[in-house]
Amino acid sequence: MVVSLLLALPAAAGLWLVTAGRATPPRLARPLAAASALGTAVLAVLVLVTGSQVDRAWLPELGLRWSFAADGISAPLLLLTAGIGLVVTAHAWVELPPGGSPAGYLGCLLLVETGALATFTARDAVLFLVAFEVVLVPMWVLVGRYGDRRDPRARADAAGRFVLYTAAGSSTLLVGILLLVVSTGTADLRELADGAGAALGPGRQLAVALLLVLGLAVKVPVLPLHTWLPPAHTTAPTAGSVLLAAVLLKMGTYGLVRLPLATVPDGFGRLAPVLAVAGAVGVVWGGLVCLVERDLKRLVAYSSVAHMGFVVLALASGSETGVQAALLANVAHGLVAALLFVLVGGLKQRWGSVDLAVRRPALRETSPRLGLALVVGLAASLGLPGLATFWGELLALYSAWAPAGDRPRGVFVAAAVLAAVGAALAAAYALRVAGLVWAGDRPAADAGTGTDAVGVERWVLVTLAGAVVVLGVAPMLVLSSTADAVAGLGGLR
């Protein structure tokens, strides 16, 4: 019952705001959206505490079930999604982008949250795909309608790329899921993970794994399927960028764990070396682009490509440590990316652009709270010990150095070394941004005192920065909750 309410509350509020509530003024729409997000967060906690689940016949003729539940693998992502839902609805008091109805904008945020929650709790493969697709239309609206108004052509291009890439990936994913379900005779993810998928022949496993990995790699995104992400991030409103980085990308990596890795482990293992190399190259490529990128928001987007490369490398290793590292790095990147995108969105509002080529006074002097948030975000992005991303990336490198099973150790060691070079590049681009923005290269007297973070914006930044520090100091908050569920996955060492 509780898990049904978890999905129904944001869905009902979002649909009402998008349709019947479109004329609702911001003074009413914002509290409604925030109350819905708060209720959803409470229900998410109750689902994990009570173990609530639903399992009913959905399409009996096809053997499909309406099945939702949470376990140790999905629990951290469920809490992350609920928390980010609170962040983006609260941020509406800071920024309501033009281009359409404020109620419609808030409704789209809630519908994206609904799709993500359904994806992380779905226990039927076809139901997983349906939930996976729920986010497509509202996110397209957020990018295409509520995105940056200064360049309509770029906004249309970003929204079009998002739809085309994700639709192509979803089509491939659909074929892979149908092949898996037809081959095994079940769509139940628990049965598939308990051996129904692993019983398939080597050729069928490889075919299923290839289709599933290709479909999910677009959403992660894995290089070279990443080119839709930077334009979408650059154009999207701040809350849209936060959802995209902190939640939507995690749906892809979660899908890699729940589908190919758990259901067809041998087929996934044969693809793992290619995936590991793609992840490591993504780490380096993202870092190199960040070293020369001028637009700060686009820079943060490319840093996401690099960070998700570590997640992919960890998953490819096929070990329990690797999956643990990937799940931890998922949550860590979600928090850090949310912090940086909220911060960059605030700077863009104040400055009109976030072009790093423009000389500006030191942020630490004009807006010390924003400056502190920037330092925390950049330090976490480069993997500084004591902050959230350090443990996930360290464990990812460790798992790649000692991959599971018969995976070619030489390939994985080379990928680990390459990813370590990418980590060094992260330090370089983080220091570059700190030097240009935090330290500044123009006297503050030239521009006067800037507007610092106050009110809701301040508390959003404090909450995200605090979560980054807490997860860095106590990574066992995630690792202990996922340990038993990861140990139960088939095909891991």
TrEMBL record:
GO molecular function: NADH dehydrogenase (ubiquinone) activity; NADH dehydrogenase activity; ubiquinone binding
An example Gene Ontology biological process: ATP synthesis coupled electron transport
Xref: InterPro entries: NADH_Q_OxRdtase_chainM/4 (IPR010227), NADH_UbQ_OxRdtase (IPR003918), ND/Mrp_TM (IPR001750)
Listed EC numbers: 1.6.5.-
Organism domain of life: Bacteria
Membrane listed as a keyword: yes
Membrane-crossing segments per the record: 33-52, 73-94, 125-143, 163-186, 206-229, 241-259, 271-292, 299-319, 325-347, 368-391, 411-438, 459-479
Alphabetical keyword list: Membrane, Oxidoreductase, Transmembrane, Transmembrane helix
Subcellular location: Endomembrane system; Membrane
Cellular component annotations (GO), alphabetically ordered: endomembrane system; membrane
Record domain NADH:quinone oxidoreductase/Mrp antiporter transmembrane: where: 122-402
Protein name: NADH-quinone oxidoreductase subunit M
Organism the protein comes from: Phycicoccus endophyticus
